[in-house]
Amino acid sequence: MLPLAALPFPNIDPVIVQIGPLAVHWYGVGYIVGILFAWWYAKRLVTNARLWPDGTVPMKPEDLDDFIVWAAIGVVLGGRTGYVLFYDLPRYIAHPLDILAVWQGGMSFHGGLLGVILAMTLFSWSRGIRTWSLFDVVAAGVPVGLGLVRMANFINSELWGRPTDVPWAVEFPNGGPFARHPSQIYEALLEGLVLFLILRFLTHSRLKLKTPRFVGGAFIAGYGLSRIFVEFFREPDQQLGYLLGTGWLTMGMVLSLPMLLAGIWAMATATESVQKPASILGKHDA
């Protein structure tokens, strides 16, 4: 494709501030702010009795104070492990020490999700909290962090889109002499803003927190659908390319399709429940 007219790439330094060897990046701040927002928002949800069955919340705000550490560990370990396994395994087999070089980039949302799911399962079992209720609460605020990280991807001039002639195309500094889809912004809007507003509607207008696993299912399905859609505009990872010689199938699609199906299943099978008294719940009731 010949070079096309494009919008200028904004000159935003990926490093917010640097003091000696210590550098603060927009990418890292996006993760931190996203985790803190999801924690704050989840605490708001569990202090609003109107949203829950019989006005009885399934956990205390203090539980979420403790869970934030578990969540951060799950995101980082799961995200890094997922990237290594799903996107660049041959490189890390050849250079295993690079696995620890997280400052060089390389995080997978799908791996991070699996890490957080494991953390939620173990934490909820240890506290006698319904696992799906914890998932619903956490999922409701996660899209904000997703949107921030995608905007950081744009600032970093990474994960850009395929060449295009749309009027809002951008010529990325390291994307060759091509006008490309700003696919990071597409993802920020769909996975971030739109998905957050949908979940907000479900929690506060449709009161779906009264129906365990519906909100969590909506989050999983919404992300899966958004990611599959944007993958049609996003350049595939260079080390993977298109899968099976299709010219369109990407690893992001392959990993997101099970999410879409699992989310639809969760919503379809969710039923309203009457909150049991805490004394009746078994310690490992999920």
UniProtKB/TrEMBL annotation:
Domain of life: Bacteria
Topology term for the membrane: Multi-pass membrane protein
Listed InterPro entries: Lgt
GO cellular component: plasma membrane
Listed transmembrane segments: 24-42, 67-87, 107-125, 132-152, 185-202, 214-230, 242-266
Protein's cellular compartments: Cell membrane
Residues binding a 1,2-diacyl-sn-glycero-3-phospho-(1'-sn-glycerol), per UniProt: R150
Family: Belongs to the Lgt family.
Protein name: Phosphatidylglycerol--prolipoprotein diacylglyceryl transferase
Record organism: Mesorhizobium delmotii
Gene: lgt
